Amino acid sequence: MMENNLKKTILYKNHICLGAKMVNFYGFCMPLQYTSSLKEHMSVRNKAGIFDISHMGKFILNGKDSINLIQYLTTNDLSKIKIGQAQYNCLINNNGGIIDDIVIYKINEEKLLLIVNAANIEKDTKWINTYIKKYNYNIEFIDFSQEYSLLAIQGPLSLFYIQKLTNILLDKIPFYHFKIGEFAGVKEILISCTGYTGSKGVELYIPNEYTEKIWNQILELEIKKNKIIPCGISSRNSLRLEMGYRLYGQDLSEEITPIEAGLSWITKFQKKFIAKKILQIQKKNGKYKKFISFIVKKQGKIPRQGYSLIDTNDNFVGNVTSGTFSPILKKGIGLGYLWEKKTHFINENLFLLIKEKKISIKIVKLPFIKI
């Protein structure tokens, strides 16, 4: 069976018992959906849902040189966050390409928690350790991806459901901040006000031995006969796309720089970092592929990864990297790149090619929806 060759999270059997359809997601056997992706999507937008995202990589860097090293290997400015804060960032290579997009938690002045994409655990480990050795840094690097699980509870009612499991005031945790405390009777749980859906919620970092207990307790919570429902990666994908969040391996890669990916807002040129000069020149010259977000004008037409973008003269000018049907907008939405940054691509002369038919699209600003 397919599952036998894939990595599994601690909750694999729970997903099977709940009737989840399991699929290969970057080498992990993950739940695609339990009931329907539409039902799960709308539950997160209107009520609450829970995701097992334990496949994500989890690193600890501990030592007096930790912040200096990660500050150099990433584009965002770590000096801007305090203890108890998190930051969206990206590791880049010597050419300015994105090795990975990551979230960094500042535990204390010497200790960082890095959350990396599952497919990039080995690559990121090698890259970071290369520089630890190169500069002989005093850093303890720990990959505890397999020892800890990660659950995301998302949706406008999510905090109301799970508040009864902790004394930490969840609605007092600011966005991209975290607290460490007791949850469901388990001590030292990191609770962060982060997520990949755009809806209100938290993420929980849990030692594996307590994960099933906490998962079950959350699913048993009830408010007016309503419960949090388990959600799979299909709804997680449509939820993140409505917000315009990038997915590594599709929207981001080592051949794409943060400038090209529309991530200039996490590229801070006032600090020193690897490939800084390359990105400065790229931004100044303006000669780079351009990240776009768009809505399909025609009802029922859905963009998919790999679809081509063409102009009025049928020239191939770009490609779609992510696309889906938005349950909120009830239209097809997509992310992609124009291969050259040109100002003449306006909404009236850019098209999506679906089965050799030109479908009009409209370039819009992100996010696609307002929460």
Query: Could you give the order of the helices and strands?
Result: HEEHEEHEEEHEEHEEEHEEEHHEEEEEE
**In the CATH classification, which architecture of the largest domain applies?**
2-Layer Sandwich
**Distance between the terminal alpha carbons, to the nearest Å?**
41 Å
Give the helix level as a range of percent.
Answer: 10-25%
Unreliable stretches (pLDDT < 50, length at least 5) are none
The largest sheet is: 6 strands, mixed
Strand order of the largest sheet: 10-11-12-9-3-15
The CATH superfamily of the largest domain is known as Probable tRNA modification gtpase trme, domain 1
Radius of gyration: 21 Å
Number of strands: 21
User: Any idea of the CATH topology of the largest domain?
Assistant: Gyrase A, domain 2
The gross shape turns out to be globular
- What's the overall average pLDDT, rounded? 96
Number of domains: 3
What portion of the residues fall into strands of 2 or more residues? Answer: 25-35%
The helix tally amounts to 8
Please give the CATH class of the largest domain.
Alpha Beta
Features:
8 helices, 6-stranded mixed sheet, 21% helix, 33% strand, Elongation Factor Tu (Ef-tu), domain 3, Alpha-Beta Plaits, 6-stranded antiparallel barrel, 3 domains, 371 residues, Gyrase A, domain 2, alpha+beta
